[in-house]
Amino acid sequence: MQNLVQNRTLVIFDDPFYKIIIERKYDKYYEVAQLTLGSSVPKMPLIESLILNKWYKFNFHAEKDYSFNKYSKRINPKRLQRISKKESKRSIGTKAQNALKKQIHLKKESIKNNKRFYAKKEKQDLFKLKQRKKIQKHKGH
Q1: For position 7, what pLDDT does the model report?
Q2: Are 50 and 38 a contacting pair, CB within 8 Å?
Q3: Is the dihedral of CA 101, 102, 105, 106 positive or negative?
Q4: DSSP state, 38?
Q5: What's the pLDDT tens digit per position in 81-111?
Q6: Which residues of 54-85 are buried (b: 16+ CB within 10 A; e: fewer)?
């Protein structure tokens, strides 16, 4: 059985930066990635080079059990242009927004956990150092 992968790329202006959002659908997975491009209007060669050469920069966030039509028929290019123009006016789809929010939330949680872990470790190290100094002080020199 052949797996069909559908990709959709959106470039939006999220004041003050332009962002590229890539949605990827395959099997029962829906993935979203976002990358900030900068404050100036991105040119098409920049976007193409990002997608073709720097794909590793995109950090995809996956969600399971996404239902969509696996086999879609070919769409007329003119109709595809109209659809993409309409979607670009509408901005990001709600599924993409929710997935990106979830990704940001998970990243924040992992950062919090890391900070907590290192703060606890630093506190323990400081305590051990104080204990060693106290023992050295009371050795009876």
Answers
A1: 80
A2: no
A3: negative
A4: E
A5: 888 888 777 666 677 777 888 888 989 999 9
A6: eeeebeebeeeeeeeeeeeeeeeeeeeeeeee
The whole-angstrom separation of Cα 107 and Cα 95 is 18
Task: Please state, as a whole number, how many other Cβ atoms lie within 10 Å of the Cβ of residue 93.
Answer: 15
State residue 69's pLDDT score. Answer: 53
What six digits make up the tokens of 43? 């040119």
With a CB cutoff of 8 Å and minimum separation 6, the contacts of 139 are none
> What is the rounded CA–CA span in Å between residue 125 and residue 120?
9
Q: Tell the residue number behind the tokens 């993935």, with chain if given.
A: 31
Pairwise CA distance, residues 6 & 135, whole Å: 66
Structure tokens at 85: 């123009």
Average pLDDT, the chain: 82
Q: Does this model's pTM top 0.70?
A: no
